[in-house]
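WARN  no MSA supplied for this record, continuing single-sequence
INFO  ligand: zinc ion
INFO  echoing inputs
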Amino acid sequence: MDRGGLLGRTNACKIVKNDKKSGLFHAYLLLDKDEKYLRETLKFFAKLILCDKDGCGDCRVCRLLEKENFADAVFFPKNGDKILTDDVNALIEDSYIKPLEGDKKLYVVAGAHNMPAPAQNKLLKTLEEPPENVVILLGATNAYALLPTVRSRVKTLEIPPFTEREIAEELKTICPDGEKLALAAACGDGTLGRAEELYGDEQLEKLFDLAADIVVNMNSSRDVLKYSALLLKNKERLSDIFAIASSLFRDMLAQAEGGAVIDARALKKVRGAANFNAGALIYALEKTEEAEKRASAYNANETMLAEWWLFAILEGKHIWQK
Ligand SMILES: [Zn+2]
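INFO  complex generated
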């Protein structure tokens, strides 16, 4: 996979390139929903920041960074996937040691969304006033897992959701079945990692059809009963259904706003949903993203959540009626 091509076209990449000319910020927060590839994405940005040729991939610095072995770049967490207060202490202590090879030191913190509040608090002062020539790069799937005080001290870079075509193109060598890949890309929530996981999932077609059916045909409170029963038959896949519905709403919205041309197989299925206008779509998308978050909470009540979501879609259609 050449994820570098995709990442290289992002606005986040342009921002960092410009900052290199005008002076890098002392702390960045990279937001990427793709948890599976978050550390790899951070590595791409580490190369961009430290390599003289904007992350060429071939030079000594890039090759060492690829192995997380470059003396002036430290990657966290060291073990496992959780940042601990010990990691933060190590980072702070190390940041006072001068760079060995180049003119700056870089600290990469993957999974910052898993950082406990005390560890975040500990990091605050360093984020605000790091020693000279230190750059801190935090990576998180979700900004809201970070304290507002942390968020206000970093410059945020965002990796946007990728289109189905970009995802399919990227994954085709490891996911050779074109039909299955197209479906996985449509359900992958704009990320490579999720699409890769869903590739070959036997249930996926069924879940996709249910999500599309709800998006198109949820029109009355009687439908709520029917669809909540169907959702509960798949209650262990509820968060996947929400993620698929989010992608559908996002695609429909892009189309309604005449935005980027998207190549959604999904759109063929939901073309009948003409009773949504842009306002209702934005509303439905917000509620669906909220449902996604609530579904992943440890104490989610599936019945209540399913009904809440269905009513929210209905409500949006009424509020924003043409
Ligand atoms: Zn290089």
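Strands lie at 27-31, 73-76, 105-109, 134-140, 155-158.
INFO  checksum written, moving to next record
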